[in-house]
Structure formats: C-alpha cells, structure tokens
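Reply to dn_fold:

You asked what the input looked like. This is it:
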Amino acid sequence: MSEIADLTFNVVAFTEVMGMIWKRLNDSGKNWRHVYKALTLLDYLIKTGSERVAQQCRENVYTIQTLRDFQFTDRDGRDQGVNVREKAKQLVALMRDEERLKQERTLALKTKERMAGAAAGSGMGSGSLPPPYPGRHTSQPSMTALYGDDFSRSRESHSSFNSTSSSPRRAASDMEQARPQTSGEEELQLQLALAMSREESEKPASPPPVALDMDEERQLQIALSLSKEEHQQEQRSRQGDESLLQKALEESKREAASGGIGVRTVKTPYHSI
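and this is what came back:
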C-alpha cells in the first residue's frame, strides 16, 4: 500500500489508481471483499498519499456515503456488509472534519517515515534501494520494497559495499525510535500491518515467465506475412467469383441470342405457306 501511496504523487498514476478504487467501490454485494479492501486502501491513501486523494474524495463523497447502507448476507446468514458500512461512516466523518484530517495525515506520515527509517537502518542502505517512481514526492522507500523478495539480496549488496557502516547499537536505536509513542500510533501501525498481511496472503501466484523464441521484430514480420497472404487469398477468391459471374453472363447472352434466331427460322416457312 505504501507503493500505491507514492504513486498518487504522479499525475498519470494518480488517475489510474483512483479510477480503479472508484470502480471497486461500485462492485456488487457479492464482491463485498473488494469494496472493503478499496475503502481500506482509500483510508490509507487519504492519510499518507497525495492531498489530491482527499480532494477527490470530497468531490465524490456521495459515493462513499451510499456505502453506509451497504448490505450483503452470505449463505450462512452472516452480515458481511457491516465492515463496509462502518468503514464508510469513518471515512465520511473524516472528510467532514478538516482539522482531524490534518492531524491524521501528520501522524500517519510520521509513523510511515519512522518505520521505513528503522527498516533501512537495520540492514538496508540507500545504494540498494529501487529508483523512485517518476514524480514521487518522498525519498522514503516503500514498505513493499523493503520487505519484498529482494530483501535478502539488498542486504547482501549493502554488506559487500558498506560492511562496517552500521552497528547493532545504531540499529537498536533506530528500532527504539520507530516504536509508537501513543496508543493512536500503535493502532495505526497495527492496522497497516494487518492490511499488508491480508494483501500478501490474498495475492494470486504469479504465472511463470513465458519464454520467447523470437524477438518482436521477427514476430511482426510473420504477422505481416500472414496478413498479406490472407489478403491475397481473398483477392483471388474475389477474382474467381467475378470470373464465374462473367462467364455466366456471357453464356446467358449466347443462349438468348441463339433462342432469337431459332424463332425466326421457324416463323419464315409458316408465313410462306
């Protein structure tokens, strides 16, 4: 979610992200999980993403308000819409309280920076971080990048270049600073951790990469050749149809001409008699 929050600072990515969120919020009742996850992500983006997120939410607050009456009961009779309704109420209340929104953003951004800084101090250097997204307004690494599949490789790369740059004492100090100072910060960290855990557990397995035997230029040549061949076949078929039609017309004319001569030869002896 941290990466998505960073993407909202880019104009093009912001439009794509928000478009997908509004689409998910309009899902049907049976897709209540999509709606709830979209609300959770929207809550996170409002607090840690671009200020344009909150601005667009105010402009489309009616869409969020309608979710306060979201209803869906599963086959076992359980009300699965209660979480959606509660989350929608919280977001609407937050949008209407400008002062509270500023406080929530300040708190969430500080917590995000401390968590990212602590993770960087415990084993990641600036040289091993992935390049930031174009237009990104923050220099802090994203949580997914810090705890993703490349974490071990980043640690090895960092140790090979700066094996003595950090010490256990410094790491312990950074982790101490990252600890929540208030119950609100602790609750926010817990919500972020739970949301990230659910997101990771529900990710579908990525398909294996497809091996390409031919480069793009070769594939394009083959496609053009096939298209040209199909066009030529179509032309030949059309010419064949026209040839058959022409032959039929000529044969019809000959039959008509021969039929007229036959009539005249019969009439001549009749009149002479």
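Residues 125-168, 261-273 have pLDDT under 50 and may be disordered.
Hope that clears it up.
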